[in-house]
Amino acid sequence: MKTSPSHIPVINLPSLLRKVIKAYALKAGIRACGCELYRIGRSRNWQLKASFEQLEAVVAFIQGSEEPSWQWLVSYLMSQRQALSHDELMRIAQLKSPLTVNQLMARTDCTIAEARKVIDELEWQ
Fold first, then answer.
1. What are phi and psi for residue 9, nearest 5 degrees?
2. How far is CA 108 from CA 20, 22, 91, 99, in A?
3. pLDDT tens-place string over residues 4-21
C-alpha cells in the first residue's frame, strides 16, 4: 500500500476486471463508498484510493453482496490495510475518542504495542 501526496492510501488491484463477474456493479459500489477507482494507463491493473473508513465501507459492501467472485477482494483489502502508519492509527483513535486497546486492535489489526502507544499518547494530550 502506497500513500499519495494527499496522505490517502493507494492500493494496487492487479487484473481486477479479469477476476470478477459483474465488474460494473463492483466498480459502482466502490465509487458509491466515496473511493477513487481508476485504471493505470492502458494496462489491466487498477488502483484504489481510499481512506480507512472508506475501505471499511467497501469491505462491508462486498461482504453484504451475494457475488462470490468479489470475495477475494475482501481478503486482499484486509491484507493491504494492515500497513497503517502511527499517524493513521492516531487519527482513527481520535475519531472514536473513548477507545480501548482491544477495540483499536480489533478495528485496525494493529499490534498491542502500537495500540498501547496510540492510546497512551491520546491520554497525555
1. -60, 145
2. 26, 29, 12, 12
3. 555 677 888 888 778 888
* CA pair distance 99, 103, nearest whole angstrom: 6
DSSP 34: T
Q: List the 9-13 sheet strands across, edge first.
A: 2-3, 9-13, 46-49, 36-39
53 grid coordinates: 473508513
| DSSP 3-state of 38 | strand
Predicted TM-score of the model (pTM): 0.72
Whether residues 33 and 9 fall in one domain = yes
Range of the domain at 95: 86-123
Q: Are residues 108 and 55 in the same domain?
A: no
pLDDT digits (tens, 9 = 90+) for 30-55: 999 999 988 888 888 888 898 888 88
Nine-digit cell at 81? 490495510
